[in-house]
Amino acid sequence: MNGMKKTFKQFFSMHGSLFRYSLSFSMLMALFPTLIVVITLFQTQVLDINNVLPMLYLFLPQDLLEPFIDYLLNREESNFISLTISLVVACFLASRSFYSLMLISSSMEGFETYKILIRIKSIALFVVTVLILGSVALVSTIFQYSFSLSVFIGLFIGLYLLFRMLSFKHRGVMYGIIGALFSSVSIVLVGKLFTYLVANYMAYESIYGPLSSLMTLVLMIYIISNILYFGYCLNFAYAIHIVEIKYKSMWFYHFGEHIIDSFKKVFKR
User: Residue 248's closest CA among 156, 129, 117?
Assistant: First the structure.
């Protein structure tokens, strides 16, 4: 009971509200760059991107995303340099949501460092997450799991690893399970319920006209970001108390801080 009180207190706090709005905006800004990265990396005969798209359309309006995805599938990069630049820029923009979550973690866990180092690590975590989700999609395609089960397995594994990577502290293997389980179940159920309500009861087309799909997209991303943040709060509230706090990847932060401090001394001269 104390864990749930702590979760709701954190979720509805002033900082929690700001975090949720920031995460929603970051996810919205990262959506299309993320599609560029995923479709470019996994448009192969081994992993058919068309097997992954139904998972996406379960939560986001198909009529809004389909023209953009068709464009990505049919476009041809002029050369390797152009493709590389496109992927680098897309990864930088798409990792914005990871950066937002990592700032939340650093604030709540009392970890202080230069933000540029957190930004660099957020890009690396985004790339790792895309590869993990691609692997899950490949496995589900090979073994022909049911669609709903594939979505749940992919979300649970991806979110479990994501919650663990977002923490700056060394955690036990159980950390992240409760948040990943809640978030994955909630996202699947909300996705189906939201699709049904929009199709049958919400008169977005009569209110917003051509912008109805865009409003649906914004609302769904806001709901998903709230679910993810609540899952994060659950992990934080039910985490086993750490007597001796040890932060992860300190070699990276020490090295980065040393480089930045050296540059600051040079420019102060």
Answer: 117
Cα gap 46→216, rounded to integer Å: 32
Residue among 237, 128, 229, 117 nearest 168 (CA): 117
Residue 46 predicted with pLDDT over 80: no
Give dist(CA 225, CA 237) in Å, integer. Answer: 18
- Which one-letter amino acid corresponds to residue 204? Y
Residue 61: name the closest of 204, 186, 184, 159 by CA. 204
**pTM (2 d.p.):** 0.79
- Residues 173 and 164: their CA atoms lie apart, in Å, by 9
The alpha carbon dihedral of 9, 18, 248, 89 has a sign of positive
Euclidean distance between CA atoms 141 and 225, whole angstroms: 27
Phi and psi of 121, rounded to 5°? -70, -30
Summarised one tens digit per residue, pLDDT across range 139-155 is 666 655 555 677 777 78
